[in-house]
Structure formats: C-alpha cells, structure tokens
Specification:
The protein is an alpha/beta fold. Helix content is about 45%, strand content about 20%. Strand 2, helix 3 and strand 3 form a beta-alpha-beta unit.
C-alpha cells in the first residue's frame, strides 16, 4: 500500500532519475564566428572547413542550423572546422564569397569542393559536410 512517505520517496527517486539521467551529449563541433584570418589559416592548412552563411531571421538558415546541431550532438564531423558568417553584419564577407544567405560552403585540401544554398533537408546538409570531410 502506498502511504505518503512511500509516495514521496518514489516521487523523489523518479525526479532524481529524470534530472540526472537525461544527460545531453556535448557538441562535437562548434560554429565559430567567421574571422577571415582564422578561416584562411584553416583552409590553407588543408583541414576540412565548412562556412555557414546565416541570418537570424532566415527560416532556411534556422533549419540548416538545427540539422548541424543535431549532427554535432550525434558526434559526427568533429574533424571539420565550422565558421558562421553573419549575413547582416558581414556584408563584405557575403560579397566576397558571392553567396546568398542560407549557404554552406565546404573546403577540403585547401580549396572549395562544394556549396549549397537554400537546402533544408538533412541529406542536402550532409552532402556538403561529406564533401568537406
């Protein structure tokens, strides 16, 4: 029979399990703010690099960012350096890259190997990341 003490103990055990058992995995990669010198150095090193041109108000950008976050939490693509261009604040970079917002650009071996604009499916994002990695 459940009395108050047992019910309280059971509730405490469930709450403890839920709060400590729901461990959120650490992200495998971090989107760094776009810095021309850092991006250039990463590309020249031959390291895989992905640049995401992002606007905070852009729905496609949010969809791409959500996919990137999910892939990061799954521990994929940790060897890629990720950089985010702020579409609204870094117009000179956007112009130099010659891209619209909501664009992913992949670099491998010191050169651009793929780019995709407006894609919001996981397959379209993964294709760019796979090209880099």
């Amino acid at each position: 029979m459940l009395n108050r003490r047992r019910l309280l103990g059971l509730s405490l055990a469930v709450a403890t399990t839920l709060s400590f058992g729901a461990v959120v995995p650490a992200e495998a990669f971090t989107l760094q703010p776009y810095d021309a010198a850092a991006v250039d150095a990463a590309i020249k090193s031959g390291r895989p690099v992905v640049v995401h041109v992002y606007a905070g108000w852009c729905l496609q950008c949010h969809a791409q960012a959500s996919i990137l976050k999910r892939l990061s939490a799954a521990g994929r693509y940790e060897d890629i350096a990720f950089f985010r261009v702020d579409y609204d604040k870094q117009k000179d970079v956007v112009k130099a890259l010659d891209v619209p917002r909501s664009t992913l650009i992949a670099f491998r071996g010191g050169k651009e190997v793929d780019r995709m604009s407006w894609g919001t499916s996981e397959a379209s994002v993964v294709a760019v990341l796979d090209a880099a990695g």
